[in-house]
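Notebook entry, cofactor series.
This is the third protein in the set we're modelling with a bound small molecule. For this one the ligand is fe (ii) ion. I'm keeping the input format identical across the series so the outputs can be compared line by line later. Sequence and SMILES below, as received.
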Amino acid sequence: MSAQGSFFEEPAPDNEIRLKNGELIYYPQFFEKGESDCLMQELLGTIAWKQESMSMYGKTVLFPRLMAWYGDASTSYSFSGNTFEPQPWTKTLLHIRDLITPVAGHPFNSVLLNHYRNGSDSMGWHADDEPELGPAPVIASVNFGATRRFLLRYKNDHHLKHEMELQHGSLLVMKGSLQQYWEHQVPKTTRKIPGRINLTFRFIYI
Ligand SMILES: O=C(O)CCC(=O)C(=O)O
Ligand SMILES: [Fe+2]
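Returned structure with ligand:
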């Protein structure tokens, strides 16, 4: 196809996944392997990882993963009864943020990090639809380490599903009305797998 032909036709990029009332864009190799390996080690060693707890039916339950919250000083974030005060940006987190911002086409002032230590660590069904994220949040999700399944289901019809495998060095941008209409999860697996780190860059409206 000539350059002119492709210019006028503007084919939808094949990394775009258009769901009913929501949109995903997946870049499987956003970071090359060597850089991904370095970033993973750097984040494992420098982030203030913590196993947080939530209260459920009057009991204190530990989240099945380690977490950390970084961002601009003004951004605090609440979910599952917790309010997280951000730690100041590290050099590595700013480096990653500055690479993904032009691709996501949206600024980010905070990042939630999750460390899934093995296949028993997981994240249950939820949508990132807290009011401070605004009505149609753009969320950029960066992945290092073990490939994990990422499942989506339509809130009003659980038969409507989408499944992806998020690999080492990948970037997934969630946008449009995805958080309003869809939930997502990272299920447990019995496979013997190494750890995985996920970073979700967000914009908190203050
Ligand atoms: O680990 C993932 O891929 C998902 C993380 C997530 O959904 C979140 O932090 O809200
Ligand atoms: Fe999420």
